Amino acid sequence: VAGPGGPGGLPVTLNSQGLLPLPSANLDARMRRTIDANAEARQILQSLCHEEPNSTAYRLALARATRDHSRIAQFRRDFQEADASFNEAVRILEALQQEYPGVDLFRFELADTLGSFNSFRPADLQRLQRSLQISRQLLDKHPAIPEYRSLHAATLSRIAAVQTIQGQVIRAEAGLQESGEILQQLVEQFPEGLTYQLALLRTQQQLAGLLARNNRTAQAAQILDEAIRRIESAPEGTRIRLSANALLNRLKELRQNLNAPA
Questions:
Q1: Which of 24, 45, 120, 151 can bridge 7 by disulfide, Cβ–Cβ 3.0-4.6 Å?
Q2: Considering the entire predicted model, what is its pTM?
Q3: Alpha-carbon distance 153 to 176, whole Å?
């Protein structure tokens, strides 16, 4: 579980990082199937939870399905529905955490859910900061678990996006640097992990954009060149080349704009 498409991203059944971009008609059809499958899953899990209210497995599965429904609603820009599902998922996970404080899985799922609402309201920043606090505690306790490391990196990047909008450039840069270091270690440890590679590339893009907007073009260019080389050095036909083609074009465009006259 990591990065966009995992913690804080769309459900893995929709726009999975391992798939090529779909034409809009196919995406609409796939979205409909995802919505229908999610609705059916939530209905079944709600019934199971009613029948066996003490089952932590059913409650956790319902929280995940409800969180995925929130992410789908965000993708469709139905923010009222997204808010409602988000709050319900958090309620379930907070109850599980309170009942079983020693189970780190519940804390991980709560942190993941708290970091999954992608907007820039003050309450959302507070949720992100709480997610970061939990993920840091998990990371301190279990520094070798890659899911905890990738969640922490993803949350740092999301907080940096909010801080950038608020003009907290120094904090945003520090967070992106830390996120990039974590992801670089994951890429080196798991070279076949496509999700980690894509998350690192996007973090590099985010950091380069921040630096460029603050007239640090030389540093931005260095980061972009490294990200472009990372993609282009992969053999043709590999998953990273197929999945990162659109991202490669955006990186090259951003790199070209650095050389454009003001």
A1: 151
A2: 0.83
A3: 8
